[in-house]
Design brief:
Blueprint: E1 2-3, H1 5-12, H2 24-28, E2 33-38, E3 44-49, E4 56-61, E5 68-69, E6 77-82, E7 88-93, E8 102-107, E9 114-115, E10 125-130, E11 136-145, E12 148-155, E13 161-165, E14 173-178, E15 184-192, E16 195-202, E17 208-210, E18 220-225, E19 231-236, E20 244-249, E21 255-259, E22 264-270, E23 276-283, E24 286-293, E25 299-301, E26 308-314, E27 320-327, E28 330-338, E29 343-346, E30 364-369, E31 375-381, E32 392-396, H3 412-419, E33 423-428, H4 437-441, H5 450-465, E34 468-478, H6 480-491, E35 498-502, H7 508-514, H8 520-526, H9 534-539, E36 553-558, H10 566-578, E37 583-588, H11 598-615
Parallel strand pairs: 1-30, 32-33, 32-34, 34-35, 35-36, 36-37
Antiparallel strand pairs: 2-3, 3-4, 4-5, 6-7, 7-8, 8-9, 10-11, 11-12, 12-13, 14-15, 15-16, 16-17, 18-19, 19-20, 20-21, 22-23, 23-24, 24-25, 26-27, 27-28, 28-29, 30-31, 31-33
Helix pairs in contact: 1-5
């Protein structure tokens, strides 16, 4: 249900009394679970979790039971892929957040870890696929030149590596699927977050066909072959506001829609017998899972609670679905859904730390009109038992991306803040995903422009609820949200009691010059050209308005961040201190763009809460 500020008070008047305050450590004792893969025999699920303090691989029987740790990596494992034939797993990890991911092989029983891409150290590798036999892998790497990604095949038996395709296109081209007969490779050409092409490469003839050739912006991704490799499926918004599932016939070039909805289709999977299609739609931040019988065309909704489903796939016998699900009161966990029985069975239990689910805040879906009348959606978190007496502190939280979306899920950060008595509003400002291509494209070459006004609209929405003291509002954000935080305190300094910037760009010129080489062509369209748009980028750079800042600031940065480099925060802090502005600064030596180690997450969030306690209450 969507709430406006006018009817919010009546909806919350029967809130429960104030709850117990929990420690930061209790919240971070709740396990984070990402990425699943099912063993060849269908009996075991491999997944990534941070039980030991760093994301590593664990396995658990598909029907539940005792979990076993597989890897003991000192850096975060970011992805994993079961072999189609052996009880082996390929996984990726980087070095202290530098995002130069490398590939490794390990038995699902643990033991020796074999490096597969040692020759690519210092470069980015991206796993694509095993071959059908499971004795080779295909991946992309920018080893030859940081601007370009080439394709490599590694023989897992001999270790022999072969470069099978080189690309010198200014826009990155990476492999996304490999046909079972190894003849065809599917590529995605990345122009920017809203614009891609799907390329079909025939290794037999050497011919490459752009199957989505177009003008303007058009999303094309998530491509895959069917078993016969005579059809390609991919997600696209061709002549549509929202993403749908398309097909392409390899022999004839026929192209059309396999499934379309009123909202984005965010993910999909075919059953192993290719008789059923499972897909999810993103309905204003909430996942809906649907199962389509491809013979009859009949579609049914899966009986999944309201929340967020981040990944899913069929079991080997096609009778069940393995998925990761979470909701505001339920952290990420692995579930197995029985299709016939329509029953959901929880396999993992990440809720550790002694916090009752009933003490988690359930957000309200909200909407409001921005200054130009554009409708903005978002989520509002109000602590239980809080009275609408105009005395309460609040936080405006602009998300990162900026092409991202706040969703109806378990947000550990917001739960910490509401447990400490802060209202949190999280707007999906223009440029956010999930509301159509026109809405998303509004952020292009307008950083610090109209989306800033949308964020100010969130501030005004807080005041209209009657809960908030206008003298007790902070702005907090990370990445693009950090840039927006800096924009808020420089362009509307009178609104904020304090502010927290987590690895946000401070100078759009230096930001554009320091991002990874293969990002630079796409960022020209998203942010601007450092030569042609120099004056505009300088005008939108918060660092040029230091004198306007009146709010105390906390700035947090990962030393190894390749996206928003440490210099972006360093220069902001230097200027703030040079102008005698109040600023605390913390650099995490072993982290990058985001903090993967639980010990660092606890440290950072203790700092954040102490800072807010000092300045906001």
């Amino acid at each position: 249900m969507l709430m406006t500020s006018q009817n919010l008070n009546s909806a919350l008047k029967n809130s429960q009394p104030n709850m117990k305050q929990y420690t930061i450590s209790q919240y971070f004792a709740i396990r984070a679970i990402v990425g699943t893969s099912v063993s060849p025999d269908g009996k075991t699920i491999a997944y990534i979790t941070n039980t030991t303090g760093i994301p590593n691989i664990w396995t658990i029987p598909i029907n539940g039971g005792w979990a076993n740790q597989v890897t003991l990596e000192s850096n975060a494992v970011s992805s994993l892929f079961y072999s189609p034939k052996k009880n082996e797993i390929v996984f990726s990890t980087d070095n202290m957040g530098d995002e130069n991911h490398q590939l490794f092989l390990v038995s699902d029983k643990g033991g020796e870890v074999k490096a597969l891409t040692s020759a690519h150290t210092g470069s980015q590798t991206m796993f694509c696929s095993f071959n059908k036999k499971g004795d080779k892998i295909l991946f992309s790497s920018n080893k030859r030149d940081p601007r370009f990604f080439d394709s490599y095949v590694v023989d897992l038996n001999t270790g022999a590596e072969t470069c099978i395709a080189e690309f010198n296109d200014p826009f990155p081209i990476s492999a996304i699927d490999w046909s079972r007969d190894e003849r065809f490779i599917l590529y995605q050409k990345f122009y920017n977050n809203s614009n891609h092409d799907i390329l079909l490469y025939d290794t037999k003839t050497g011919e490459t066909v752009n199957i989505t050739e177009h003008s303007g912006r058009m999303k094309n991704g998530g491509g895959m072959f069917n078993k016969k490799a005579d059809t390609i499926y991919f997600l696209s918004d061709y002549e549509r506001e929202f993403i749908a599932l398309a097909y392409y016939k390899v022999k004839t070039g026929e192209i059309g829609w396999a499934q379309a909805e009123k909202w984005d289709i965010s993910n999909y999977s075919f059953s192993n017998d290719e008789k059923n299609l499972l897909y999810s739609i993103n309905e204003s931040g909430t996942s809906r899972l649907k199962l389509k019988n491809l013979k009859t065309g009949k579609i049914k909704n899966l009986k999944i609670p309201k929340g967020n489903c981040s990944s899913f796939h069929f079991t080997k016998d096609d009778k069940k679905i393995v998925l990761i699900f979470d909701s505001p009161q339920n952290p990420n966990d692995i579930y197995v859904y029985d299709i016939k029985k329509e029953k959901l069975n929880q396999v993992t239990f990440s809720m550790i730390g002694g916090i009752p689910k009933s003490d988690f805040t359930v957000p309200q879906s909200i909407k409001y009109n921005s200054v130009d009348g554009l409708e903005i959606n978002g989520f509002l978190y109000i602590p239980k038992g809080m009275k609408p007496d105009g005395t309460n502190p609040a936080i405006v939280w602009p998300h990162g991306g900026p092409e991202w979306q706040e969703k109806n899920l378990f947000n550990k950060y917001f739960q910490i803040l509401t447990n400490r008595g802060y209202i949190v509003i999280a707007p999906n400002f223009r440029g956010s995903t999930g509301y159509g291509k026109t809405f998303q494209s509004m952020i292009y070459k307008d950083w610090g422009g109209n989306e800033f006004k949308d964020v100010i609209g969130a501030y005004n929405y807080l005041l209209e609820t009657g809960y908030v003291d206008k003298n007790k509002i902070a702005v907090v954000g990370g990445s693009f949200g950090g840039f927006m935080t800096l924009t808020c305190v420089t362009k509307a300094p009178e609104l904020w009691k304090c502010a927290i910037d987590i690895f946000g760009p401070s100078n759009l010129i230096t930001f554009c010059n320091s991002i990874p080489e293969h990002w630079k062509p796409g960022v020209v369209e998203l942010v601007g050209d450092v030569e042609k748009d120099k004056d505009f980028l300088m005008e939108r750079s918060p660092i040029n308005y230091i004198d306007n800042i009146t709010a105390p600031m906390l700035i947090i940065q990962g030393k190894n961040d390749p996206r928003v480099v440490k210099a972006e925060s360093d220069q902001m802090v230097e200027k703030l201190r040079g102008s005698n502005k109040e600023v605390d600064y913390k650099v995490l030596e072993d982290e990058g763009h985001g903090f993967s180690k639980v010990s660092n997450q606890i440290l950072v969030w203790n700092m954040i809460c102490d800072f807010l306690e000092k300045h906001l209450k």
